[in-house]
Automatic annotation (TrEMBL):
UniProt KW keywords: Magnesium, Metal-binding, Methyltransferase, Transferase
Pfam families: Methyltransf_7
InterPro entries membership: MeTrfase_7, MeTrfase_capping, SAM-dependent_MTases_sf
Molecular function terms, GO-annotated: metal ion binding; methyltransferase activity
Descriptive protein name: Uncharacterized protein
GO biological process, one term: methylation
Length: 365
């Protein structure tokens, strides 16, 4: 069986896996409305978990890490949700609010400079809306892969991550996935197994690292881009945006715009898991006790097919441009997303446009 592993040129995967920086038209900052909807949808579970943590131990300083924070307005949204929950809880309990220390984590290529430039606005909002009654709130960056250790032992009270853990540490070694860039109906059976094995390996490494870094009784809330078994009769394949992107790339190969070998050697370092797969890894790793697991759907905006296609293409470009440009070349990226906006827009005429997410609340045993 022919096995391939995706090359990423002269760069390691962690060097090209990053969201588009800045605040331009193709930036992640201006094309992350869907991720914002997901964070807001998961807000009740996040706030419920942080209130339970605070009410049980009343730490003078709560140390929080947000894994895969990216940049833009969404970066500060989970922090604000934590502040709101702690403020309300401390007022009900007639206690002085704790100090909040937040570490924002992402890979070194993340646009941390944009985050730093936004800090004065965040602190101004905190002062105006909380009237100086909450805080202080200290925010710092912690660059590095969350699949390894980042913090001293027993130093974190709370860990949060939203829409980051579907990115794998590497592309798994898979059978030749001819004409595809991810799991598809035409993928050989071994492709799904390879992706699932890589997800289990990576997620286990994540949990073990956080277990060492968190205090006993510390809590974690993870929101993961997933898939719904009800929409997956084979339990091995769920139609995804990557399938349509792969079709578009095949068209470009037939037209001579992309080399066939380039397409055949490319697979996305990405896996959308079933809720049961997420729970299985947590229970097998044994460091955390699951408090709550919920799956929910978030719909794309209602608009005509051309506008919807254009917006989806821009959202996808904001998160994949760096890795695609590294593999296929900068000069072809504009053409890719122009074509994809048309293809996905036409598909959206008949597709409901819902994405599945899993949110898991857990406590360190």
């Amino acid at each position: 069986m022919e096995v391939q592993k995706e090359p990423v040129g002269d760069l390691q995967l962690h060097q090209v896996l990053r969201m588009n920086e800045g605040d331009g038209d193709n930036s992640y900052s201006n094309n992350s409305l869907f991720q914002k909807k997901v964070i807001i949808k998961a807000k009740p579970i996040l706030q419920e978990t942080i209130v339970q943590l605070y009410s049980k131990s009343f730490p003078e300083c709560i140390t929080m890490a947000d894994m895969g924070c990216s940049s833009g307005p969404n970066t500060f949204l989970p922090i604000w949700e934590v502040i709101e929950a702690i403020d309300e809880s401390s007022r009900k309990l007639n206690r002085k609010p704790p100090i909040l220390q937040v570490f924002l984590n992402d890979l070194p290529g993340n646009d941390f400079n944009s985050i730093f430039r936004s800090l004065p606005s965040f602190h101004k909002k905190l002062e105006e809306e909380m009237g100086g009654k909450f805080g202080p709130c200290f925010i710092a960056a912690m660059p590095g892969s969350f699949y390894g250790r980042l913090f001293p032992p027993r130093s974190l009270h709370f860990v949060h991550s939203s829409y980051s853990l579907h990115w794998l540490s590497e592309v798994p070694e898979i059978p030749l996935n001819k004409g595809n860039i991810y799991l598809a109906k035409t993928s050989p059976p071994g492709v799904h197994k390879a992706y699932l094995n890589q997800f289990e390996k990576d997620f286990t490494a994540f949990l073990r690292s956080r277990s060492e870094e968190m205090v006993p009784g510390g809590c974690m809330v993870l929101t993961i881009c997933g898939r719904d078994e009800n929409n997956d009769s084979s339990a091995k394949h769920s139609p995804s945006i990557w399938e349509f992107f792969g079709m578009m790339l095949n068209d470009m190969v037939l037209e001579g715009l992309i080399e066939e070998s380039k397409l055949d050697s490319f697979n996305m370092p990405f896996y959308v898991a079933l809720a049961e797969e997420v729970k299985y890894v947590i229970q097998a790793e044994k460091s955390f006790t699951i408090i709550r697991v919920e799956s929910f759907h978030v719909s794309t905006d209602t608009m005509n097919k051309y506008t919807k296609g254009k917006n989806i293409a821009k959202e996808l470009r904001a998160i994949t441009e760096a890795i695609l440009a590294n593999h296929f070349g900068d000069e072809i990226v504009d053409v890719m997303f122009q074509r994809f906006s048309i293809k996905i827009g036409e598909f959206m005429e008949t597709f409901k446009g819902e994405n599945t997410s899993h949110v898991v609340s857990m406590i360190k045993a």
